Amino acid sequence: MTGAVRLIDKIKLRAEILERIRHYFAESNVLEVTTPVLSFAGNTDPFIDSFKTSSTTPQYLHTSPEFFMKRLLTKGCGSIYQVCNVFREGEAGRFHNPEFSMLEWYRLDYDYQQLMDDVAALIRNVSDKSPEVVKISYQDAFKSLGINPHVATESQLADLTERQGISLQGMGKMSRDDWLNLLMSHVTEPGFDKEKLTFVFDYPVSQASLAKVRKDKYPLAERFELYWGGIELANGFTELLDADEQRWRFNHDNQRRLKAGLEEVPVDEKFLDALARGLPACSGVALGLDRLLMVICGATSIDQVMSFPQSEV
């Protein structure tokens, strides 16, 4: 009986959060949309693996609704949002499930700094909490380690990782971004105040993904990630508008995949065609709803906020 009550409680909490999300966006005239789950193109990101069908012409379950949502933006839909389930192969653990809920939205004429403020406002609105907001650049996040992550060499990063006592068992050949990600997850992130909304922004260009790159002392990606309660919750950008640059990044991703022994993924030509026709200036963000629920209700595992986690499917 107790277990049944807990299940009902988390279902009710999820429903309440979704209602508040919809109210938040309705208040600012952001339109809710629905897009396909299956596509003939996959995610080229070398750090993400897509599920694909076994049909003669394989299709891929989306890892994010991003490409379809941006195609809607090129058709004049205005600012939009979507709540949907997404799929990522090989993701299972305390904070991961192969199928999980995502909230993704795009604001026209916003840059990534404005979008960070929007994310903080939404979280405060749906959680009934008022956490302090901290914004820290990617470079400053590494300051305590005595390196500049934008210029440090692979050798310097490898030496630093060894000095930090981080285990490399089962890691295989490491790229520069692998070293940076390892240091971020094992050393930098644990130091963030769990009570505060911590935004890390201005990432290395090698981690730009679909973000705009800004020329500074050295090029920086206008990208941010949000941490709260010791968990990474969201990933956002000032969106890249250049179709040629985006094609180059997709192809470069596939080269990195092949070098790492991963399968090459078909590039989304329809998305690139839409981008070439003109994506309006905007910023977008993807937020993990299950992880947000974890922080709101104090759960220690993603399984505790899902009706049917992978272990029960």
Describe the structure in your own words.
With 313 residues, the protein is α+β, with helices and mostly antiparallel strands. It has a single domain (2-132, 195-312), classed as 2-Layer Sandwich (BirA Bifunctional Protein, domain 2), CATH 3.30.930.10. Helices cover 36% and strands 20% of the residues. It is built from 9 helices and 11 strands. It has helices at 2-27, 66-74, 112-127, 138-141, 154-163, 176-188, 243-259, 269-278, 289-297; strands at 31-32, 38-39, 60-61, 80-87, 99-108, 133-137, 197-203, 213-214, 220-228, 231-238, 282-288. A hairpin with a 2-residue loop joins strand 9 and strand 10. Helix 2 packs parallel to helix 8. The longest helix is centred in the first third of the chain and has 26 residues, at 2-27. It starts with a helix and ends in a 16-residue tail after the last helix.
| Distance between the ends | 21 Å
Low-pLDDT sequence parts: 1-5
Beta fraction of the residues? 15-25%
CATH class: Alpha Beta
Number of DSSP-assigned strands:
11
CATH topology assignment? BirA Bifunctional Protein, domain 2
CATH homologous superfamily assignment: Bira Bifunctional Protein, Domain 2
What's the rounded overall pLDDT mean?
Answer: 94
CATH architectural category: 2-Layer Sandwich
Compute the CA-based radius of gyration. Answer: 19 Å
Please identify the structural class as seen in this structure. Answer: alpha+beta
Count of discrete alpha- or pi-helical segments spanning 4 or more residues? 9
User: Largest sheet, if any?
Assistant: 9 strands, mixed
